[in-house]
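Hi support team,

I submitted a single chain yesterday and got back a structure, but I'm not sure I'm reading the token output correctly. Could someone confirm the output below corresponds to the sequence I sent? I've pasted both exactly as they appear in my results page.

Thanks,
R.
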Amino acid sequence: MSAPALTRPRGPLVGLALGAFACYAPGFWWGAPHATSADRVRPWGVDDETPLGTLGQVADIVAPRPRRNAGYPKMHALMSTAAMAPYIVWSRATGRMSGFDDEYPFGFADPVTGIERLSNVAHLLSVLLGVGIVLAAFDVGRVLWTPGTGVLSASFAAVVFPMFYYARTGNVDVPMLFFIALALSAYVRALRGGVTARRAVWAGIWIGLAVATKESAFGAVAPIPLVMAWIAVRNPAEAAPDGIRKPLLWGGLACVLAYGLGSGLFLDPGWYIDHVRFLLARTATVAREGEGVVRSYPRTLSGDLAYLGAGGRYLVSAMNPVIFGLGAVGVALGLRERRTRLLLIPALGYAIFMFLTVRTLQLRYVLPFAYVLAILAGGAVASAWRSDRAWLRISAIAAATTGLGIGLLWGGELTYEMVRDSRNDAARWLAARTESGDRVAYFGPIQKLPPLERGVVSDQSAPFEGMWATRPDDAVAPRKILDHWERTRPAFVIVMPDHVSYPGVPHNITLPPELFDALEAGATPFRPVARFRTEPLLPWTGMPALDYPTVNPTIRIYERVDGAARAHGGDRPPGGGR
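Hi R., thanks for writing in. Yes, this is the structure output for that exact sequence:
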């Protein structure tokens, strides 16, 4: 007997879409580059390649450059370029852009405004994909259970903590999760109503595009066609109305085409080979324990146990303890029902794939697993609500309300700190105290700095090797840096943590700790004059840390105190920060 036809409840869809947009849209402009010079065109977010990086990846297909970004497949670059294309066309038509150029100002008459708006468009795309993820959770919940359960599942998925950050930036993680969510939506339809050619094609498309966005998706989506094939073979008369061969053939073809086009394999085969080589080399690098500031877990029993323990802690942080607990109950209840058991298989596939291949953990890495647990949490609350025991219904409502409340409080606190990021105040402070030609020294990646005015020169004080940097072993490193400052005569030194800072260390890895202590003590030609960090609005919420100290970092500024510094305004009031 076939399953009854699904209805299309528009009311919940509209309400969930508006609610998710209200969660993710505030602060989507965070991190946009302030492109006052050629070295200030990248955003604050780690692994955020928008807008120029993704545009460059697409341009490379037509006119390859000597050094090309091979870090991720091209799907996200294609999506963000398509989103930014209307603004580029409009800029060309109105004279705001004279043409396309690889060099600063990239054809813009006003690169500061142009690049900032392109960044905003790319980030708004992430917001919309985040909304799509929430709606897909509703769809999975209503297909497996009821529309009411779908609302609960979508609500829990919406407040998964990392979504409040990654749905506002140009990272690939939310686009990857978006396609995983759509693949799960097609998958549960096959679980409910049988494997048809139409469902297999849609599942194949979303599976191909998920892996074409980020290879980590493979673990989550690879089990889907295997289970669908198993269903078709096991009960072809009921589970596969179109037979067995037709769904598998057309679904497989759709997957290959989607992956080949989205990943860049068909569009730029040479680049794709370079990408695979890069991916293999990076995986090997991460697997080596103690590499730079990246925590990796050795392939030993103790390393495996530590990895699993850390993964559990990240899941609790991503979902908050209450929703995680509801998800665990949903798993226990789901083991008794066949469709729900089969929903767990993609989540387990993702966990196993990451365990075997990626021996490091971050909050964003658990997003696909947390997404499935959030859906099952909705099923757990709905099951308790149907109970004839009043205490169970009341407990379920209290737990759901508490879990959603904590998620919204964490998301609200993060939103506040993104909108009131410390770099905004630091930028205003520096703008009032610097002139064109002044030099500002810094450590680490320049794109993390507060925005600097046009004409102000930024100077990297020590060689920086990027994400895989190691702490300098040179005993005379502080002397080298001081000699460099003596030659270049910066008016200010900026110190702040970033994505290659050791946990709890307030500065980049290339700043020797003894020199940082000397700066703080005023034992160098520079004196501490300002510190900026917006204090939390709701410090009692216990909001977990993000993967990196990227949002609202503590920024320390030191001013040169000799005669040259006073000539640049050193006699003005030093000001201060939060």
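A quick pointer for reading it: The mean pLDDT is 90. Let us know if anything else looks off.

Best,
Support desk
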